[in-house]
Amino acid sequence: MIESTKGIVLSNMRYRDSSLIAHVYTEKFGRRDYIIKGAFSKKNNKASFYLPLNILDLQVYEKGTSTLMMVKEARISKMLMSLRTNPQKSMILTFLSELLEKTLRADEIGNPELYQFLEDSLISLDELKHNWNSFILQFMFRLSHHLGIDITSASLLLSETQSLGYMDSGLIKYIDQLIELPYKHDVVIPLSKRREIMDQTVKFYTLQLPNFGELNSLKILREMGESLRKNRER
């Protein structure tokens, strides 16, 4: 049966010479894995449609199973230009792609509210002209609500991830601001504290979600941030 749905590409991989397998979180059906035959053909190159975190309008052959399915037609629903041209935003995109690939891999039912959250968040990131340093942490706190592991406060996060009885009051203030404030509001946090909050948040995800594992892109994100910081100081 042919169905229409919106979808956000989580990741992709080349398949044989000219085809592509795309992992997509769809509005109607949750996560689906699609094979796009001829995606790299010279005559009709479709591979660029399936870049990670592209927002697509899709017509798909839906079987209601977890097997590879096919896309009948796809087009870009919303162009997110700055996410492809701004190096810092592109790195954020790489991190989000890995995070969502890990957290949404078992969702084959569909959650329109989660889908809308993802789409709205990507559009918000694209529209930010500055102040996107806090975006990843704000995104992870909001995503936790949709995953059923809701990080509702700094006290909850730190009580689950710290073995010490003492909680840093400064850290609590920053975390609660990140939870409460919208994306457009960049919370000014010292780098060491920002990294500590990220480590605690990743640890929380690891404790709450089976087989979450490590986030390889976090190391790259930090190396890029360090490089940009050194360039500014020259």
UniProtKB/TrEMBL annotation:
<dbReference type="GO" id="GO:0043590">
    <property type="term" value="C:bacterial nucleoid"/>
</dbReference>
<keyword id="KW-0227">DNA damage</keyword>
<dbReference type="InterPro" id="IPR003717">
    <property type="entry name" value="RecO"/>
</dbReference>
<comment type="function">
    <text>Involved in DNA repair and RecF pathway recombination.</text>
</comment>
<dbReference type="InterPro" id="IPR022572">
    <property type="entry name" value="DNA_rep/recomb_RecO_N"/>
</dbReference>
<protein>
    <recommendedName>
        <fullName>DNA repair protein RecO</fullName>
    </recommendedName>
</protein>
<dbReference type="GO" id="GO:0006302">
    <property type="term" value="P:double-strand break repair"/>
</dbReference>
<dbReference type="GO" id="GO:0006310">
    <property type="term" value="P:DNA recombination"/>
</dbReference>
<keyword id="KW-0234">DNA repair</keyword>
<dbReference type="InterPro" id="IPR012340">
    <property type="entry name" value="NA-bd_OB-fold"/>
</dbReference>
<dbReference type="Pfam" id="PF11967">
    <property type="entry name" value="RecO_N"/>
</dbReference>
<dbReference type="Pfam" id="PF02565">
    <property type="entry name" value="RecO_C"/>
</dbReference>
<feature type="domain" description="DNA replication/recombination mediator RecO N-terminal">
    <location>
        <begin position="1"/>
        <end position="77"/>
    </location>
</feature>
<comment type="similarity">
    <text>Belongs to the RecO family.</text>
</comment>
<keyword id="KW-0233">DNA recombination</keyword>
